[in-house]
Every structure is written in structure tokens, then in C-alpha cells.
Write a structure and sequence with these properties.
Helix 8 packs across helix 9. It contains nine helices and eight strands. Helix content is 41%, strand content 17%. The chain is of the alpha/beta class. Bound molecules: zinc ion. The site of zinc ion (ZN) has 5 residues, from loops.
């Protein structure tokens, strides 16, 4: 069994196709999916999906894109969602400096302070609820590491869609946090490949981040949960392991980390 630990099946790209997407996932032995919110509405939609489909679980939180929307009321609303038994994480939360560095095109994008405030509020929520955090990191390696360090020993967290290098991976793992990989590892990216070779299989999880980041052979198309197997295949190839070993270990890790049945 595979677990897609990060999907956005509530996004408009899937419209009414969720049952078909779940059918194809099942055919590929992808039997658990964590649907991840990026703001209050999508967090609510994630929980709606989790209530409706037994194989779906939800993560709730405010993404750095939406950092300006966070209010005390919203934090309370997210806390209420988080109390549901099918909510297994606070996410996705984190820092995204990609858009910040291109501020001429993205003038209204939340600034560094706004993003850090939102991120820390959400990490506090993870501590308060006892749930693990799903961390989004785009071009913000140093700040993510610095903030995670201050939560070291209290927080469980996974750096999702890991796109940095082996050295950074080691720093994350040294703090006791986990790492997960998307279909972007099937693209040409020597730094990520080097990291995968060095990271112990037992610290890794796999995900699609669908509808985004379709694996190489589907690139440009909509991604979906069934394709998480391509990420497992690439890890197996890079580490010289069998696909079955990668399937077993990443599933074991995900079940334990998120407390899935
Ligand atoms: Zn995502």
C-alpha cells in the first residue's frame, strides 16, 4: 500500500472527478491520501472530503500565500477543525520567498514578517493540538531551519516537497524532523537526487502535491494521487532498492507520523 501524504483534491482542477481519481489511486494501491488545506476554506473542504471518503484524511492550516488573511478568529476556526478525528496534521504552513523575491510581479504578496508571524501561529497550533506540522519551504531554507530549531524537541514536522540539497536535509533530520518528496524528484535535479541517496529510507515519505508537480512522464498535465508511485520508483532507483522496500518503508513512516489506521 502507498500513501499520498499531500494532495489538494478539493482544488478546482479536480471539479467533480474526485471519485474517479480515488478509483485510479486504489488501482495503483494508493490507499490513504492526506488532503491539505492552504487557508480556512480549503481546510474546511479538506475535512469535508475526509468525512465523505474513508481513505482521505485532512490537514488544516494557513499557507504563507494567505498569511495576511490570518486573524485570531480564523486561528480559532482552524483549531475547531483540527479537533476532528480525521484531521491528522496542521498544514500546509511555512515560508515562501519565491514570490517575495519577485515582488515587482507580486506586489501584494505577504512580506517576510507577515509570513513568519503566520507560520509561528500555526506551529503553536500544532503544539496545542499535538498534531504534526506539514511545512512548505520555497527559497526560505535559512528562516525555516532557524524557526524549526526553536521548536526542536516539542514539535513533530515534515518538510514537504523537499527541494534543497543533502546538507540541508541532514540539518532537518538532525533536528528530528522528517522529509517528503514529490514528483519533482523525477525531473533533472542533481541536488535533490544526492539528498535522496544520503537520507535514510526510514526518514522519508512520499506525496504528489497534486494537481501540481506531475512526474516527468506526465509533465505539463494535471497530477493525481495514483502517480505517487513514480516518486517511489525514482527513490528506489536512486537508492538501489526494490520498489517494494520503498513502498513498505515510506508507508510505515507515514502511518506512524500521521497516526493513520
Ligand atoms: Zn501543497
Amino acid at each position: 500500500m502507498y500513501i499520498d501524504t499531500h494532495a489538494h483534491l478539493d482544488f478546482p482542477e479536480f471539479k467533480t472527478e474526485v471519485p474517479a481519481v480515488l478509483g485510479r489511486a486504489r488501482e495503483s494501491h494508493v490507499e490513504r491520501i492526506i488532503n491539505v488545506g492552504v487557508d480556512y476554506e480549503t481546510s474546511k473542504h479538506s475535512l469535508d472530503l475526509a468525512r465523505k471518503y474513508p481513505e482521505i484524511y485532512a490537514a488544516v492550516g494557513v499557507h504563507p500565500h494567505c498569511a495576511k488573511e490570518l486573524s485570531i478568529e480564523m486561528k480559532g476556526q482552524i483549531m475547531t477543525l483540527a479537533n476532528h478525528e480525521k484531521v491528522v496534521a496542521i498544514g500546509e504552513i511555512g515560508l515562501d520567498y519565491y514570490h517575495l523575491k519577485r515582488s515587482s510581479q507580486y506586489a501584494h504578496y505577504p512580506n517576510r514578517d507577515e509570513q513568519i508571524f503566520c507560520f509561528e501561529q500555526m506551529l503553536d497550533l500544532a503544539l496545542e493540538t499535538g498534531l504534526p506540522a506539514i511545512i512548505h519551504n520555497r527559497e526560505a531554507d535559512a528562516d525555516i531551519l532557524g524557526i524549526l530549531k526553536s521548536y526542536h524537541g516539542q514539535l513533530r514536522a515534515v518538510v514537504h516537497c523537499f527541494s534543497s540539497n543533502a546538507d540541508y536535509a541532514e540539518k532537518i533530520l538532525d533536528l528530528g524532523f522528517a522529509i517528503s518528496f514529490t514528483g519533482n524528484i523525477t525531473y533533472k535535479n542533481p541536488d535533490i537526487h544526492e539528498a535522496i541517496k544520503k537520507i535514510p529510507l526510514g526518514s522519508m515519505m512520499i506525496e504528489t502535491d497534486c494537481p501540481y508537480l506531475a512526474p516527468a512522464q506526465y509533465r505539463g498535465k494535471r497530477n493525481e494521487s495514483a502517480y505517487v508511485i513514480e516518486t517511489a520508483r525514482k527513490i528506489a532507483q536512486l537508492k538501489g532498492l526494490s520498489l517494494a522496500e520503498v513502498e513498505e518503508e515510506t508507508t510505515k513512516k507515514a502511518k506512524k507520523f500521521f497516526g493513520l489506521k
